[in-house]
Amino acid sequence: MFFDDERSNRLRPRILTEVVGQYLNDSERARLFGLPDTTRIRERAKIIDPERLEIGEHCWIGEGAALDASGGLTIGEHTSIGVGTLVFTHSSWLANMMLDNRPGSDLIERKPVRIGKGCFIGSMVVVMPGVTIGDFVTVQPMSLVAKDVPDRCLVAGNPARIFQRYDEEFIEAEAARVRAAREEYRPVE
């Protein structure tokens, strides 16, 4: 029933880890995948080549996200990756065009992706190979990030473009606004 070849034997432990991971809570799943103890990884999230993933503390990875680390993937601390988001670090387009789309093809191109610290990557975002997303960036849901994004900005669209830049004063004002609104809804004790 099972193939006894190098590729199958290499992939099988990863598949079993994903299956077992479905029965764990977020923190247990993070530990199973070798992620920091403060990381929370939701159900059905997939990490391709987790040994090439560098992830900071206090990160959150949403349900159904697919993180391709085969070309190298770095995610900074306090970053959230939204539900159903796809991060690619490889492309097989040329292997397809040359009718050589097979495991190990020398036409599969790999480029590292870096996502900075303090980022919020919304749901259903696609990040293409070779992209660097700076620190403190918000990527709105359903955006396609195909080019580098500088620090402290909000991007959206297909392709994603900058809609707003953040400075420290803006962030502090927003934090005060959210905290004040939260106080209004706090239950009376």
From TrEMBL:
UniProt xrefs under SUPFAM superfamilies: Trimeric LpxA-like enzymes
InterPro entries: Hexapep, Hexapeptide_acetyltransf, Trimer_LpxA-like_sf
Key word Magnesium present: no
Keywords associated with the record: Acyltransferase, Transferase
One Pfam family matching this protein: Hexapep
GO molecular function, one term: acyltransferase activity
Taxonomy, superkingdom: Bacteria
Keyword Translocase carried by entry: no
Similarity field: Belongs to the transferase hexapeptide repeat family.
Name of the protein described by the UniProt record: Acyltransferase
